[in-house]
Amino acid sequence: MSTTTLDTPRDSQTTGRRDIVKPRRKGVVSGGVLTTVTWILALVFFAPVAWMVMTSFKQENVAASNPPAFFFEPTLDQYKAVISSDAGPYFLNSLIATGVSTLLVILLAIPASYALSIRPVKKTSDVLFFFISTKMLPIVAVIMPIYVISGQLRALDSIWTLVILYTAMNLPIAVWMMRSFFQEVPGEVLEAASMDGAGLIKTLRSVLIPMVTPGIAATALICVIFAWNEFFFALNLTAAKAATVPVFLMSQMTSEGLFLAQLSAASVLASLPVVLAGWLAQKQLVRGLSMGAVK
Amino acid sequence: MSPRTQAPPTSSPREVRTAAPEEADTPGPASGSGTAWRGPRRRRVGLPLLLVLPTIAVLVGALGYPVAWQVATSFQEFGLKQQFGLPPEFVGLANYTAIFTDPTLWTILGRSLLFCLVCAFATVLIGGLLALLMKRVGTVVRLVLQVSMLLAWAMPLVAAMTVWVWLVDWRRGALNWLLTRVGVDASGHNWLAEPATFFAIAAIIVVWMSVPFVALSLYAGLTQIPEEVLEAAAMDDAAGIQRVRLIILPLVAPVLSIVLLLQIIWDLRVFTQIKLLQDAGGVANETHLLGTYIYQLGVGSGDFGAASAVSIVMLLITVAVSWYYVRSLMKEEAA
């Protein structure tokens, strides 16, 4: 009983959210009230974001005004300031750490998740268990060893240290997520491929991967979000050379707290890539985050 | 026996076997696999292992080894000198007795657990209500809410914190301005200076940031309930709350429990929000949670032995909490 929802047949996925007709039930509360409440709640989540965007188009003196100004002459000065400031290297570092680690994750996760999707043997569940347990690991509890070991390897303040750590950080999610996509490939397709004499590599390359490409893309986007937003490793393991965007934002927050508008512009620029990724991956987001528990 | 089941062209069977000799002769078909095509092929268990091996290697190297190091260090005296090359000294349980006899740890431990539980339950409650709401309202407003939540969730934590820190800023924050406007004189009041209000603000921020994931997951769970069930419930004229309690809740219970457990685990390790609020005006020593405490012990004071011991305590709590989650996932796996 307790696993009813989890065990719903795989094809429930194909139903998709949108096709489901919402029953118009007559409740105690009228629809109008609920709709209004929903709008207000949307505002609660949206307002801080909107405020950040709005502030980023202000001049500093307007941004600092108290009471807050809602009407002002928008300016692009803050964006120009951020772009012409020393933010470039931070963005480049984030780009490398995110891009390379995501690429590595996908390259490693495709074979691994395929292998784990084909036959559930005892070892499979052991491996999956191991993956989940690394995901449960509180990173703050392993930061010191990583710090000391990186120091001994002379790998502190190196973007490649972050690449390796982000790869490891995202691998469990990626494997779990992609495994659930591989499992959705109908058996008949693979039967047909093997009838045609396709070997493992060929089956993977020309049958399986094309079929799960949307799934791989969604997985990649989620890895991008996590790697781009990662703050803790970056804070502890980088200094001047390899610092990423979140570290840059934090330094702006503490040292230049007075430049609110410019800080907002930097925050907007830092948020753009991930918000875009989140938008593109939204349908698969939930599945990835709950390690496939919610499909 | 189809060609696919035979040795793949690019890797020799011998290689595969030497990679995992004990795997190669695992006999018999795995039972209850559910999907038809997984059945017939046998005896090449080594190949999957080979495909998984690189991933395992990365995880063991980047996360497993540090954990082992951490466990070892928690039994050593490891300060700044050791960091610069002096061999660490084995001190047995000294680090543990030191942290456990220090009341600070107990205070922080209790505070962390309380904070984490309050945040996790509040998040799941609010997220659940939002999911129910999304099921009831029209498409347009639902999409607006979903997009707003997506924005709030995907934004880098640090970027979102810039807004929150400004909101509660004691000189020019919107909170004080608003309070003053409605008649409460709050101008110049630093909410972060008092631990109680510090944690209230931290909790609001943490919940705000976590609700989107919970709401979206539970909403996805709700959409998996067959419409007939809901219609039948509506037909029986079950009142709203009853319908939720008796019909919807049992059906989403698995999702709900997983989301709650993940939330507890995540809220226990909260770091960024606390750190940035401390930087923005909190009194660090009175506002530590486990995450910032470990950070302060290790990176701040250079006492890696004690920090390791606290880390192990945190690790054990996480293991204890997540045990159930992992077990339930594995059970689903076996089903």
Protein traits:
heterodimer; A: 295 residues; mainly alpha; MetI-like fold; 13 helices; globular; disordered N terminus; B: 335 residues; two-stranded antiparallel sheet; 15 helices; 2 strands; 71% helix; 1% strand
Strand content of chain B: under 5%
Helix content of chain B: over 70%
The total of helices of chain A stands at 13
Global Rg of chain B: 26 Å
* Widest sheet, order of strands of chain B: 1-2
Give the strand tally of chain A.
Answer: 0
Report the helical percentage of chain A: over 70%
Number of individual domains of chain B: 2
Q: What is the chains' assembly state?
A: heterodimer
Sketch the major β-sheet of chain A. none
Give me the CATH fold name of the largest domain in chain A. MetI-like fold
As residue ranges, the low-confidence spans of chain B are 1-43
CATH architecture of the largest domain in chain B: Orthogonal Bundle
Chain pair with largest interface: A-B, 131 and 137 residues
The number of distinct β-strands of chain B equals 2
Low-confidence stretches of chain A: 1-27
Query: Which value, in Å, is the CA radius of gyration of chain A?
Result: 23 Å
Overall shape of chain B: it is: globular
Please state the structural category of chain A.
Answer: mainly alpha
Walk me through what this model shows.
The complex is a heterodimer of chains A (295) and B (335). With 295 residues, chain A is mostly helical. In chain A, 71% of the residues lie in helices and 0% in strands. In chain A, helix 5 packs parallel to helix 8. The longest helix of chain A has 31 residues, at 88-118. Chain B has helices spanning 13-19, 21-24, 46-73, 80-83, 94-101, 103-136, 139-154, 157-168, 174-181, 195-223, 227-235, 240-268, 272-279, 290-300, 304-334, and strands spanning 76-77, 89-90. The longest helix of chain B is centred in the middle third of the chain and has 34 residues, at 103-136. Chain B contains 15 helices and two strands. Chain B folds into two domains: 1-45, no CATH class; 97-334, MetI-like (MetI-like fold, Orthogonal Bundle), CATH 1.10.3720. Chain B is globular and about 75 Å long. In chain B, helix 8 (157-168) runs parallel beside helix 13 (272-279) and helix 12 (240-268) runs antiparallel to helix 15. Chain B has 335 residues and is mainly α. The interface between A and B is large, with 131 and 137 residues.
